[in-house]
Amino acid sequence: MTQRANLTFARVDGHEDLVRDINTGAVHNLNRTALQQARMKKKSAQRERDKVASLEKQVADLTKMVQDLRQAVAAAASAYKRDPRFMLIGHDPTYVTEEPLL
Length: 102
What we know:
Elements: E1 2-4, E2 7-11, E3 18-21, E4 27-29, H1 32-82
Antiparallel strand pairs: 1-2, 2-3, 3-4
């Protein structure tokens, strides 16, 4: 048992770097290097999660843009079929493919 100021610590069995505060029951890690590494690992994992979330949002935005473009092209093609100014001799204005562009 170690005493520091008004704190009393006891070693945790089987763990060289851990001590337990006898008063509060809190466990403290004395290995600062391991603690720093754990914090860095946690920050790195959070950055990765943020990056994935950002990429998922970008994909969703791009998907929405493609859908909007498809609708705009379909609307323009429909308007083109109905506009007599675009009637050409030998041209079939009803020919508009319904197949996806992509």
